[in-house]
Amino acid sequence: MAKRIRLPRIHPGWLAAAAGAALTGWVAWTVFQPVPPRRRRGSVATPDEAALRGFVEKLTAEFAPRDG
Fold first, then answer.
1. What contacts 12, CB < 8 A, 6 or more positions away?
2. Which residues 6+ apart lie within 8 Å of 53 measured at CB?
3. Who has greater pLDDT, 32 or 23?
4. pLDDT above 90: percentage of residues in the chain
5. Sign of the dihedral defined by the CA atoms of residues 15, 18, 22, 27, in that order
6. Dihedral of the CA atoms 56, 51, 48, 43 (nearest 10)?
7. Residues whose CB is less than 8 angstroms from the CB of residue 50 and which lie 6 or more positions away in sequence, other chains included
């Protein structure tokens, strides 16, 4: 007759703690994934880009060579 393999008994509290930790990790992994930024419709995407574009246009108008 084959010898029976005895597995150690797991306390229900440890089992519940492991299940809770696994669930918490899964929720955190799912919720806090990085979200790619959405591009807004229009010429610029962010106020920073709008400010930079205005600054560059002002410099270009001031220092660009004039015709005539």
1. none
2. 43, 44
3. 23
4. 29
5. positive
6. -80
7. 44
Q: How far apart are CA 43 and CA 32, in angstroms?
A: 30
Helix (H, G, I), strand (E, B) or coil at 18: helix
Cβ-Cβ contacts under 8 Å for 43 (sequence gap 6 or more): 53
Greater confidence (24 vs 67) lies with: 24
Please indicate, yes or no, whether the overall pTM of this predicted structure exceeds 0.70: no
Evaluate whether 44 touches 53 at the Cβ level (below 8 Å): yes
Please indicate whether residue 43 or residue 55 has the higher confidence score (pLDDT): 55
Helices (H), 1-68: 12-31, 47-63
Token digits of residue 18:
């492991």
Tokens of 56: 């560059």
